[in-house]
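Archive maintenance. Older records in this collection stored only the sequence; we are now back-filling the structure field for every entry so that each record is complete. The fields below show one back-filled record exactly as it appears after the update. Entries are processed alphabetically, and 2-iminobutanoate/2-iminopropanoate deaminase is next in the queue.

ARCHIVE ENTRY
Title: 2-iminobutanoate/2-iminopropanoate deaminase
Organism field: Dyadobacter soli
Length field: 122
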Amino acid sequence: MPKQIIFSDKAPAPIGPYSQAVKVNGTVYVSGQIAAELAKSGDIKAETGMVMQNIGHILGAAGLGFQNVVKASIFLRDMNDFTAVNEIYGGFFTKDPPARETVQVARLPKDVNVEISVIAVE
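Back-filled structure field:
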């Protein structure tokens, strides 16, 4: 079962020993994406939009799009941001959205407010 490393230069490079995404048997596992440059702005919608754009670039590098996403995980610093994040996130899944969970966590890398990872299939 060979694995293929997926990389897009349009999305931020990993900040640790992991890949942006890995493809195995037609399934693409996209690592959690953040928007560190927007975290201090206080604009959760802009931060979420950038995260989703980064995911889109990585999916594109794998030859896929948001219609291929079957599972998403959202990690929030503050669950009070749920509605705003959901509004932006939902704009990327206008038909047949994937399965998902959203959890509040104590802290995220680079002190961002939101991190999202997805799993997509061919």
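Update note: The radius of gyration is 14 Å. The chain has two helices and six strands.
Entry marked complete.
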